[in-house]
Design brief:
The complex is a heterodimer of chains A (284) and B (425).
Chain A (H helix, E strand, L loop, with lengths): L5 H28 L2 E4 L3 E4 L4 H42 L4 H9 L6 H12 L4 H8 L13 H25 L4 H8 L4 H30 L2 H6 L7 H11 L3 H26 L1 H8 L1
Antiparallel strand pairs in A: 1-2
Chain B lengths: L13 H8 L14 H18 L25 E5 L10 H10 L2 E5 L5 H14 L7 E5 L2 H8 L12 H6 L17 E12 L23 E4 L2 H11 L9 H16 L3 E5 L4 H6 L4 E5 H11 L4 E3 L5 E9 L7 H10 L3 H11 L8 H11 L3 H11 L8 H5 L1 E2 L6 H15 L2
Parallel strand pairs in B: 1-2, 1-3, 5-6, 5-7, 9-10
Antiparallel strand pairs in B: 3-9, 4-7, 4-8, 4-9
Helix pairs in contact in B: 7-8, 7-16, 8-16, 12-13, 13-14
The chains are: A mainly alpha (284), B alpha/beta (425).
Chain lengths: 284, 425
């Protein structure tokens, strides 16, 4: 009975400790690091060098824009491919829903890197896909797909597709189907029922799916390094190189913050455009 | 399931979500719930505390003055832990078994070095902290990271009195290198050549020079290494400059040369370890390559890839054994190093790894083994190996092989950024 007020705080303490330990502390450390100067031998001194950010953006704006556009393309592909999948599993799969969901997740049982590397064999110049297309005359003999932008974008879309399908599926699956029937009762055709009833209800799922694909795909570096070519380096690769190859921690940290800022801006803009209120409420 | 009955609804309270994400419109704050303001205050306080405490990363150089009598109080422990590159010893670890039989010292072998730079990225924070790495001995290629390890004082100076085999059997070329004069901190494990490999199935002429990597006929089919030093060396050699004698103006010129190659669409991609597969299946027709990888691929897969040392020259690199200062078993590590220099042992290693041994006698021993071998297939393989210039470069080859440039940390950064503008854009 003593101090009941404290109970909710105590209950939430583990979550805060977790967030503090693994989010606030590293972020604070990184922020501090991004403003230092020096090198790994002499150490990095805190000089509040904002110039690191100017350098980061000035040198790598091209890779940053490229990453955001690859992320956006991959996300679009995920919506186009993933929405019908989610729709079909939610409404048409009947008793086999779980089986289809398992199938969807099955590739996750194979390591991310290995899955991506296997695309190299698929997309090789003389590999099964291109060789077949070339031999039946559907593709020019010197066509290359591997080590190009389309290869990277397709790889990203492939690897992150389930992150789009699952949230959309979750929303569609628990949708009250009677509102669709009501739409039909009110003489809405299939198209109209979809665009005016089902789609708006499922938007929060799409929103969540976009968050879960756009953010990681824009920051990914595996696909670009495995499937990309000389002109497809993404910002994730640059961060990786600055951190692990050059040991230039300040630049790596400032690029990270620039990317984070841009992604947050994009997400908030997107949320505003969709209407946060609706998104949050239907979700809850 | 209709939304009203969803038992999980409660877990995300819409009011709380709104409270956290939007300005409050007034009204009394809940007496106990975590409000937006309190939440943000707590986060802000934590971040501020952190910003104050984490002001920069201190100088990381270790004081090495006490290293003079490092060996005075060190004793054998009976176990040594070694971090090496993958595929750098046969899977039975034959030589380690032999070592344990000969000395009674057990070896824990870790294939943990996948790439020099990221390996350095992993061990550097631990060494800066003075923590045990989990390795008493490690293999690091000569290059920027190697120089940093020495500059930072992370390596133990070797006691050459305990390395008699090295003194007796190491080739002159592998003693007293430019990157570690007098082998103060390291002894070579194996060396290799970075040259050009091509697949004659697709390339219908003989490749002889670095200039061939700039030939527009091979548009989109040329591979280059992504490592700044490796690619820089080829840009420099293409311009007729020896890497070890190059200065910043040469680097800029080499970068321009490499940019031209890239912008013309000749380069397919910049590779690390992964150039063999594309070269075999025709995605790459010719590429920068490491000698031993090509030899292994041909021997194991029956491919007919060609490896050449181009007319302009190529580079010789060396993977070196060294002892980090946090080593728990330095005496055992030293014994293992010396053991690997016994000609019979070195020959066994070379037979598997197909790279250049620092022990020249291995060529003779290998030929002897070939003569005395009853299994025809192995005898033939040994003989072929003992005659291969990829594994035993000739005097002429050595004339054409150059060292890497050795630079201080600040210059390394300038160097790396010049060449990463090409590989990372």
């Amino acid at each position: 009975m003593r101090n009941r007020k404290a109970t909710p705080y105590l209950l939430v303490l583990p979550a805060w400790a977790w967030l503090g330990m693994f989010f606030v502390v590293p972020i604070g450390g990184m922020l501090s690091l991004s403003l230092t100067t020096g090198n790994v031998v002499t150490g990095f001194q805190q000089t509040f060098e904002v110039g690191n950010y100017v350098d980061a953006v000035g040198t790598y704006w091209e890779q940053i824009l490229r990453s955001l556009s690859y992320g956006a393309c991959a996300t679009l592909i995920c919506i186009v491919v993933g929405y019908p999948m989610a729709y079909w599993i939610a409404f048409r799969a009947g008793p086999y829903k779980s089986a289809y969901l398992l199938l969807l997740l099955l590739p996750f049982f194979v390591s991310f890197v290995l899955r991506t590397i296997s695309w190299r064999f698929l997309l090789a110049d003389n590999g099964i896909v291109l060789q077949t297309l070339k031999s039946i005359g559907l593709a020019p003999a010197d066509l290359q797909v591997l080590n190009s932008a389309p290869a990277v974008v397709l790889g990203l879309a492939y690897n992150f597709l389930p992150f789009m399908v699952l949230p959309i599926y979750a929303v569609l699956e628990r949708m009250d189907h009677r509102i669709v029937e009501a739409a039909h009762d009110l003489y809405a055709g299939r198209v109209r029922a979809f665009t005016q009833v089902i789609l708006p209800v499922s938007l929060p799922g799409v929103f969540a799916g976009v968050l879960m694909t756009f953010i990681p795909t824009s920051a990914d570096y595996v696909n670009a390094s495995v499937l990309g070519g000389a002109d497809n380096i993404m910002i994730g690769n640059v961060i990786h190189t600055q951190y692990l190859v050059n040991n230039n921690y300040p630049i790596a940290a400032s690029i990270t913050f620039v990317l984070m800022g841009l992604l947050l801006l994009g997400i908030f803009g997107y949320a505003r455009a969709l209407g946060t209120e609706r998104v949050m409420e239907v979700h809850a | 399931m209709p939304p009203m009955n969803n038992p999980f609804r409660a877990h995300l309270n819409p009011a709380l979500l709104r409270g956290l994400t939007r300005a409050r419109r007034g009204g009394r704050p809940s007496p106990f719930g975590p409000t937006r303001r309190r939440t943000l205050q707590a986060g802000g306080a934590a971040a501020a505390a952190l910003a104050l405490s984490a002001c920069g990363v201190g100088g990381q150089q270790r004081d090495t003055t006490a290293d003079e009598d490092y060996w005075a109080d060190k004793e054998e422990t009976g176990t040594v832990r070694w971090a090496n590159w993958p595929l750098y010893m046969d899977s039975d670890r034959t030589q380690l078994t032999q070592f344990t039989e000969a000395t009674g010292i057990d070896v824990e072998y870790h294939e943990d070095v996948q790439e020099t730079s990221s390996f350095f990225g992993q061990i550097q924070p631990k060494l800066a902290n003075g923590d045990d790495l989990g390795y008493d001995m490690m293999t690091v290629t000569n290059g920027f990271e190697f120089t940093k390890l020495i500059e930072l004082g992370y390596l133990v100076p070797l006691d050459h009195l305990q390395l008699p085999n090295f003194a007796n059997y190491a080739g002159d070329l592998y003693k007293n290198s430019a990157f570690d004069p007098g082998n103060r901190y390291s002894v070579p494990y194996a060396s290799g050549v970075t040259g050009i490999a091509y697949n004659p199935e697709f390339v219908d002429r003989e490749i002889k020079s670095i200039a061939d990597l700039w030939d527009p006929a091979f548009e989109g089919k040329v591979g280059m290494f992504g490592d700044p030093q490796e690619i820089a060396n080829f840009g420099l050699l293409a311009n007729g400059v020896f890497p070890s004698e190059s200065n910043e103006a040469d680097w800029e010129a080499a970068a321009d040369k490499l940019r031209e190659q890239r912008d013309a669409g000749i380069v397919r991609a910049y590779y690390d370890q992964d150039f063999i597969q594309p070269l075999t299946n025709g995605d790459l027709w010719l590429t920068m390559a490491w000698s031993g990888d090509i030899y292994q691929q041909n021997a194991e897969e029956g491919t007919d890839l060609r490896f050449i040392v181009p007319e302009e020259g190529a580079t010789l690199w060396t993977d070196n054994l060294m002892i980090p200062f946090t080593s728990q078993a330095p005496v055992d590590a030293l014994k293992l190093m010396d053991f690997l220099y016994e000609p019979e042992i070195a020959t066994g290693l070379t037979e598997y790894i197909n790279y250049v041994s620092p022990v020249p006698l291995t060529q003779e021993v290998m030929a002897e083994w070939a003569a005395g071998e009853s299994d025809d297939e192995r005898a033939e393989a040994l003989l072929e190996m003992s005659e291969s210039s990829l594994i035993f470069p000739t005097e002429d080859d050595y004339q054409n092989l150059h060292n890497y440039v050795t630079l201080e940390t600040d210059d390394q950064d300038a160097f790396a950024s010049i060449f990463q503008e090409i590989t990372q854009s």
